[in-house]
Design brief:
The model has no long low-confidence stretch (mean pLDDT 92). The longest helix is centred in the first third of the chain and has 17 residues. The protein is an alpha/beta fold and 244 residues long. It has a single domain, classed as Spore Coat Polysaccharide Biosynthesis Protein SpsA, Chain A (Alpha-Beta Complex).
């Protein structure tokens, strides 16, 4: 099975190194079962190109405005890897093997759209952890978390490898993705979502001073011990790299 991780980067080379270590963790864990590749859209010319390609990830250049369009550039590039599935994350996200194991089981059943509804965060500055229990307003309760969404080849082809709208929603990534996906309802998209807390799985967003969304106690969230969060859920070497 071929899986391409689709992402974008902007500054924060130290965080990208953590992301790359997370990818290598997955490649090692799933060797022989899933061929994992990465495509990344960057915006700093040779600096970001070199940062990405030194890890044997595929790179495309696009300016850091119209974020949906930038992510689409990385998604279009993914086509070259002939993926059976694409996994969409930020370049500050870590997907733990236990979460991809859950996804892998459903991929083998041909489910088109996989996602989770909650997420964990770690702030490099304060060393605090945070658990966000998901969208809880009437209009978005139970909606997918932005990170960790997976789409099948069938759906990606139906979207022409462009899962985000190139319109006024180009910087509202979650909403743009949701509405774009609804535009291909005729495909009969089979989907499944979970709360991480219910499946004993882990996904992490690493926050730093230059994050698009700053670290804060958002609605429906609670602080956690950052050290325990990392070392209880990630291999020691990777947890240490993030916590240092």
């Amino acid at each position: 099975m071929n899986l391409t991780i689709v992402t974008a980067c902007w500054k924060r080379p130290e965080v990208f190194e953590m992301f790359a270590e997370g990818v290598k963790m997955l490649q090692k864990h799933f060797e022989g079962r899933i061929n994992i590749t990465v495509t990344c859209a960057g915006s700093e010319g040779e600096r970001s190109k070199n940062m990405v390609e030194k890890h044997n990830f595929s790179y495309v250049e696009y300016h850091n405005k119209a974020l949906g369009t930038k992510m689409n550039k990385a998604a279009i590039l993914a086509r070259q890897h002939e993926p059976d599935y694409c996994l969409f994350v930020g370049s500050d996200d870590i997907i733990a093997p236990n979460l991809l194991e859950v996804y892998y089981e459903e991929m083998q059943k041909g489910i088109d759209y996989l996602y989770v509804k909650d997420w964990y965060f770690f702030d490099l500055g304060t060393k605090q952890g945070l658990y966000w229990a998901g969208y809880d307003l009437k209009v978005n309760r139970g909606h997918a978390c932005g990170a960790g969404r997976v789409l099948s080849k069938r759906v990606m082809e139906g979207l022409n490898y462009q899962p985000w709208f190139d319109n006024k929603l180009h910087d509202v990534l979650d909403t743009s993705f949701d509405r774009r996906l609804r535009s291909v309802r005729g495909l009969g998209v089979k989907q499944k979502g979970w709360f991480l807390r219910d499946i004993d799985a882990f996904g992490l967003d690493i926050k730093s001073a230059t994050n698009m969304t700053p670290f804060a106690k958002w609605r429906n969230s609670k602080y956690m011990d950052g050290k325990d969060l990392l070392f209880d859920n990630l291999p020691k070497a990777l947890a240490k790299k993030i916590y240092q």
